[in-house]
Design a protein that fits this description.
By secondary structure, the chain is α/β, with parallel strands linked by helices. Helix content is 35%, strand content 26%. It is built from twelve helices and 18 strands. Strands 1, 2, 8, 9, 10, 11, 17 and 18 form an eight-stranded mixed beta sheet that branches. The structure holds flavin-adenine dinucleotide (FAD). The site of flavin-adenine dinucleotide (FAD) has 38 residues, from helix 1, strand 3, strand 12, strand 16 and helix 6.
């Protein structure tokens, strides 16, 4: 049986980032991935906030677009435009990025085993079984980075059925230049709220157009097709690819550590509730997990792994719960409410405030600013305003 200091199940972006961190600290790392090819099929819009540059490596050649702002569309077509002077987000070649992160982990010394589906894990004794022959590997610490449908999460929390929402995305080519690539488009509608439709340009004439929410894939496809055929700006298009994926719902009570095992990334539901984005939060957690794991290995004491869960909760729980509340409020608004909100926000100059305080990865800053200036109280029904006030507590 091969022995490792750390065995990681799942070579998605978060698992490979963690693998690199821990291999760079000099530990023996094994990384098991069920797919033959890293990163495919694409299941991501590939939009990440500027913080990515602080939390992970990102070579320029994997950036397709720099995004400076967003056009946000209300159900009946009111428009809010928010913009920054510097790039606020990047559109990534996500397949290329996943492959790059895996290569960086290998370069740091991790052993990558492709085509190795983990079928069972003895989390008490650190034994991982893979493939039809139940090949065995031993790890002093086991990390579950195996995505939304995590086998490892079921081991850590027996009760734990992971709640998920569906996501669908089309790659759409247009017969003419349609987009200013500096801007993404977000369309809100009560039928899909608290999700939204995104159009993320990857060139002037093509975009990733998708949505996420609590509906089935068939309904999503119809919503996207209606969206494309009803919007007069979107005529003359061809759908060149269709993708379907799942996004875990953030669970503040989820258990992340048991025995010698920890969960990371989508397997840990480390996903922003408002946008479904998991990359930046996952990368931040990979760094915390690597630091705690190396301490546990140095001191030969797996009880230290509990520090990962408490550091994660201390750093992110409040922001994530705030985002859940914002999401709940959005869910309760109908199309008229949403339209009214857009009109009022524009009247009150909120687009400028959003441009200044909006942050893709820390939305509570903006909500607090809108509360402080009394803007939310002017636009939402009283009942909803009272709920927002709780965000400050
Ligand atoms: C349509 C869509 C759009 C999205 N858009 C964005 C976006 O724009 N920005 C953003 O930040 N996030 C986005 N996300 C979310 C983002 O893709 C995820 O949060 C991110 O991929 C999580 O990375 P991960 O490494 O935790 O998990 P994953 O990327 O899911 O990787 C898990 C890996 O584990 C492997 N695996 C699973 N089970 C086993 C097993 N038993 N044995 C071995 N290997 C196994 C899988 O094959 C996979 O490679 C989007 C998601 C979807 C579905």
């Amino acid at each position: 049986m091969i022995n490792y200091d750390v065995l990681i199940v799942g070579a998605g972006p978060v698992g490979t980032t963690f693998a690199r961190h821990i291999a760079e600290k000099g530990y023996k790392v094994g990384l098991l991935e069920k797919k033959k090819n890293i990163g495919v099929p694409l299941q991501c819009a590939g939009l990440v906030g500027k913080q990515i540059k602080e939390v992970n490596l990102l070579p320029d050649e994997l950036i397709i677009n720099k995004v400076y702002g967003a056009h946000i569309h209300s159900p009946s077509g009111h428009l809010l435009t928010v913009a920054k002077n510097n790039p606020e987000a990047y559109v990534l070649d996500r397949v290329g990025y996943d492959k790059f992160l895996a290569q960086m982990a290998v370069d740091a010394g991790a052993d990558l085993f492709l085509n190795h589906r983990v079928t069972d894990v003895d989390i008490k004794n650190g034994i991982v079984y893979s493939g039809n022959d139940r090949d065995e590997m031993h790890g002093k610490i086991i990390v579950g980075a195996d995505g939304y449908n995590s086998l490892m999460a079921r081991k850590v929390s027996e009760s734990g059925v992971q709640k998920i929402v569906q996501a669908a995305q089309f790659l759409v080519d247009f017969d003419r230049d349609l987009f200013d690539t500096n801007y993404v488009h977000l369309h809100v509608k009560s039928a899909i709220s608290p999700g939204f439709i995104w159009a993320i340009p990857i060139s002037a004439s093509s975009a990733r157009i998708g949505l996420f929410g609590n509906l089935d894939y068939h309904t999503f496809k119809n919503i996207l097709k209606d969206f494309l055929s009803q919007d007069k700006d979107c005529s003359g298009y061809a759908i060149t690819k269709k993708y379907h994926g799942m996004i875990p719902v953030y669970d503040s009570k989820k258990k992340l550590v048991k025995d010698r095992t920890i969960l990371l990334g989508d397997a840990a539901s480390q996903v922003k509730p408002t946008t479904g984005g998991g990359l930046i939060l996952g990368f931040k957690c990979a760094q915390i997990a690597a630091d705690v794991t190396s301490r546990a290995l140095d001191e030969d004491d797996t009880r230290i792994l509990k520090d990962y869960e408490s550091e994660y909760q201390n750093k992110f729980k409040k922001e994530l719960i705030d985002q859940l509340r914002v999401q709940k409020i959005f869910k309760s608004l109908n199309d008229d409410d949403l339209d009214h909100m857009f009109v009022k926000l524009k009247e009150l100059g909120a687009d400028e405030i959003i441009s200044e305080y909006g942050d893709m990865d820390d939305q509570s800053i903006l909500v607090k600013e809108l509360v402080k200036r009394g803007i939310l109280f002017k636009i939402l029904p009283k009942l909803l305003s009272r709920r927002i006030v709780n965000l400050r507590k």
